[in-house]
Amino acid sequence: SDVMNRISYDGGKYAGELQAVLVSSINFEIGEMVKIKKLRRNQIYEIVAVGNTTMRDIFLGLNVQTIGVKPYKSITEFEMIDDKRPHTAITATAKSLGLRINRNGMVYTGPLISSHLGSDTSANLLTIDAEHQRDPFLLVDVGTNTEVVFGCSDRYIAASCPAGPAFEGGEITFGMPGYGGAIEHITVDPNLPNTIEVIDNLDPVGICGSGLIDLIAGLRKNNMMNELGVFNDKSSQYEFSEVNNLTISRRDLSALSQAKAANYCGQALVIRESGFKLNEISNLFLAGGFANYIDVHNAIEIGFIAGISPNQVKKIGNASLVGARLMLLSLQSRRKLEQF
Which DSSP symbol is given to 74? Predict the structure, then answer.
């Protein structure tokens, strides 16, 4: 589920399998899209794809083993350092990658930042127009591999945090992505049944990242759990939904606390390295698949994001997708990132 496991998997006897799965999935989604839009595949002439360094290079069919060992760099980054290429962005033919679009179609993947900070982070910076952000800002893209960027004028500091998949539903007993049936918000009440909001108003079958943040915050606010994740009644689990008897266990809380710590430490280290104080940060741009659904107060309360004023947190959702769209539509945007 994490990038290091993917690197290891791709270096073994199943080398190339991940790329095949990626390409197959993209081809399927293209097929679904052209049906909806009433288009033909050969009317698609260009694709922009962004992702973390490992996933981008796996998609391109490159050897990713150098990303898994110190100094954790893509072979394209080593080539740039050796002046063998001007930047780490790559343009390839769709045919060479097995993508089913126009036979002369092209694929552009965007430049990497450095090491595990990939072209998705580049896309995020494009989305917030980073080069014109004159006041100190923090960009946090939450995911299995959380990226943190501090910026002020022409100075940038970035970090990659191996948070793991807990807040995306992995390793949690009833955890799940933000699909129909997932609890996306919950208010914990020690005396009454909890109040829950479920995606698509279905019976709850699990809980997604935004709901997990609310759940942890609620357990702490009501003194039902201590800071170590131990329930005050000494039980091994807590039932947060009577419908389908959904529970969270101490083991689940341990995985969540490790993911939360990775997120927070990355932010704290970047801020410390910047030399700025937390109250000097003007905006915290919160990106990621479930960023728009997070209760910011609860996220700050449990230490999921830095303790900045909630009014300064700007939810920007799937900013890498927005940045990829900008790259698709603008050669100027591509050149800007390549020279960043």
Answer: -
Looking at the structure, do residues 107 and 140 belong to the same domain, yes or no? Answer: no
Do 220 and 191 share a structural domain? Answer: yes
> Would 64 be classed as within a structural domain?
yes
Q: Does residue 158 share a domain with residue 107?
A: no
CA–CA distance, 243 with 205 (Å, rounded to integer): 8
Range of the domain at 204: 131-318
Alpha-carbon gap, residue 264 to 163, rounded angstroms: 10
Q: Are residues 95 and 41 in the same domain?
A: yes
Q: Which amino acid makes up residue 126?
A: L
Asked if residue 332 lies in contact with residue 302, where contact means CB atoms within 8 angstroms, the answer is no
User: Does residue 323 sit within a domain?
Assistant: no
Q: Encode the chain (340 residues) as per-residue pLDDT tens digits.
A: 578 899 999 999 999 999 999 999 999 999 999 999 999 999 999 999 999 999 999 999 999 999 999 999 999 999 999 999 999 999 999 999 999 999 999 999 999 999 999 999 999 999 999 988 989 999 999 988 899 999 997 799 999 988 888 898 888 999 999 999 999 999 999 988 999 999 999 999 999 999 999 999 999 999 999 988 999 999 999 999 999 999 999 999 999 999 999 999 999 999 999 999 999 999 999 998 788 899 999 999 999 999 999 999 999 999 999 999 999 999 999 999 998 8
Report the predicted TM-score, pTM, of the whole model to 2 decimal places. Answer: 0.90
